[in-house]
Amino acid sequence: MNSLPEQTEALAHLRKELRETLLRLHGPLLGGEPLAAALGHRSVASLRQARRRGQVMVPLFTVPNRRGWFALTLDVADWLSATRMGASAGGRISPS
Fold first, then answer.
1. Which residues, 6 or more positions from 58, have their beta carbon under 8 angstroms from its beta carbon?
2. What are the structural domain ranges in the chain?
3. E strands of the chain, at which residues?
4. Among residues of the chain, what percentage have pLDDT more than 90?
5. Which residue has the higher pLDDT, 8 or 26?
């Protein structure tokens, strides 16, 4: 099992990589299909339903004169990295 400093370093590295990648691909704001996909939803409709149920773990907001809900790309990247690092190692597939 990894030590706490190793886990902290791994989280920081993953967070940095996700932030850079998502910012490069989508810019500072995620909405619509890219937001739904980044949060693991099959469609915007499933994301909409999760939002109504209070099951979205990143802050969502509206933008004046734009339809739909949005999230900051950095919030999504941070949530993804924290969620991944919180997952148990038991779900990991070992290389063949």
1. 39, 71, 72, 75, 76, 79
2. 4-86
3. 29-31, 70-72
4. 70
5. 26
Tokens of 31: 């909405």
Burial 40-53 (b: 16+ CB within 10 A, else e): ebeebeebeebeee
What's the chain's length in residues? 96
d(CA 37, CA 19): 15
pLDDT tens across 26-71, in order?
A: 999 999 999 999 999 999 999 999 999 999 999 999 999 999 999 9
Alpha helices in 27-72 (DSSP H): 32-38, 44-52
Instruction: Read off the amino acid at residue 92.
Output: R
- The identity of residue 10, as a single letter, is A
